[in-house]
Amino acid sequence: MLVKLVLFNMIRAPPIPLIFENSKIRRVIVSKKYFININGKKIPVSEEVYREYMRPVWRENKSNSRNNKRKDKYSRLDNKCSLDEKRKDLIGDIAVDKMMLETLLKALPKLEYNEQQLIDRLFVQQKTEREVATEIGISHQAVHKRLTKIIGKIRKLFN
């Protein structure tokens, strides 16, 4: 005599009943009905047709939600400033940058010759630390350490 007990697995949607037969578990597939709205009428279709029909809709919804998140992100950055305020900020930034550049140009001659050469290769000639390291004949870690020491010296000169 077979004893059958049907339990519903509540984790998944739609629920999938489990049937216990002589301590063996086998799944019974519950057929879910799928419908597509066409001209206000619900038309029954298979799961495959439903998924193919809905895929572009789902894709567009996902794209729209991503775009809305981006718009929100950029609208927070706007700060609702007028154009004149933005220009004033830009002019202020340019003035600060110019003053820092002048201070940097005054500080560079105070560095040693090899430090000046390293700064020139990295920032003026725009070479990588590895390229400079192969030219000098040292490791790129050593170049990086020298650069951090030079930047520390320049910061002290700024203060």
Q: Mind explaining what this structure looks like?
A:
This protein is of the alpha+beta class and 159 residues long. The chain has helices at residues 47-78, 83-107, 113-124, 129-136, 140-158, and strands spanning 4-9, 16-21, 24-27, 34-38, 41-45. It has a three-stranded antiparallel beta sheet, with no helix packed on it. Strands 4-5 form a two-stranded antiparallel ribbon. Helix 4 crosses helix 5. It is elongated, with a radius of gyration of 34 Å. The model is unreliable at 1-13 (pLDDT under 50).
List keywords for this structure.
159 residues, alpha+beta, Arc Repressor Mutant, subunit A, 3 domains, 3-stranded antiparallel beta sheet, two-stranded antiparallel sheet, 5 strands, disordered N terminus
In CATH terms, the superfamily of the largest domain is Winged helix-like DNA-binding domain superfamily/Winged helix DNA-binding domain
What CATH architecture of the largest domain do you see? Orthogonal Bundle
- What percent of residues are in strands? 15-25%
What can be said about the biggest beta sheet?
Answer: 3 strands, antiparallel
Q: How big is the Rg? A: 34 Å
Structural class: alpha+beta
Quickly name the level 1 CATH class of the largest domain: Mainly Alpha
Summarize the amount of helix as a percent range. 55-70%
Q: How many separate domains?
A: 3
Number of strands: 5
How do the strands line up in the largest sheet? Answer: 1-2-3
CATH topology of the largest domain: Arc Repressor Mutant, subunit A
SSE order:
EEEEEHHHHH
Average of per-residue pLDDT values: 77
Distance between the termini: 92 Å
Total count of helical runs of at least 4 residues:
5
Shape: elongated
Low-pLDDT stretches are 1-13
